[in-house]
Specification:
- It contains 6 helices and 7 strands.
- By secondary structure, the chain is α/β, with parallel strands linked by helices.
């Protein structure tokens, strides 16, 4: 798995809208890059909605948010619409992004891992855990949001 202090591996992928996204185009601003196992499952829905509900805070800190799973573009699109997400989801059907970050699980899906990447492209923090709530809280705390309780937070 990519570790703190290492450069975040570049990637190219298709988004839920069918467009293209690459890490190189996101540099210059901090980034929450979170991997999740499967679109439209309970834990992944809670995590996506948690990031969405705190998106304005991330924007105030100048932080971009991008979610990645191995689901196909159409599944990502439906999940994006259902959760009304203000940030892109990346379809990693060939699993190259999950492999590059070292998060591909035994069953061919991404593990729930969040990478906090600085504006210079270096990994500043890595958080891995099954429960979705701490991923959002850790990302907020990292960029000055402190520990939160309230709307959108998923408690462990």
């Amino acid at each position: 798995m990519v570790d703190v202090g290492e450069p975040a591996p570049d990637f190219h992928g298709r988004t839920d809208t069918g467009g293209e996204i690459a890490l190189a185009t996101l540099k210059g601003r901090p980034l929450v890059l979170y991997f999740y196992p499967k679109a439209d499952t309970a834990g992944c829905t809670m995590e996506a909605r948690g990031f969405a509900e705190h998106y304005a805070e991330f924007q105030r800190f100048g932080v971009q948010v991008v979610g990645v799973s191995v689901d196909p573009v159409e599944a990502q699109r439906k999940f994006h619409e259902k959760c009304q997400l203000p940030f892109p989801l990346v379809s990693d059907t060939d699993r190259t992004i999950a492999r590059a970050y070292g998060v591909l699980g035994a069953f061919g899906v991404a593990k729930r891992v969040t990478f906090l990447i600085g504006a210079n492209g270096t990994v500043e923090e890595v958080y891995q855990g099954v429960l979705p709530g701490p991923h959002v809280r850790r990302a907020l705390a990292h960029w000055g949001g402190g520990s939160r309780s309230g709307a959108g937070e998923v408690r462990p």
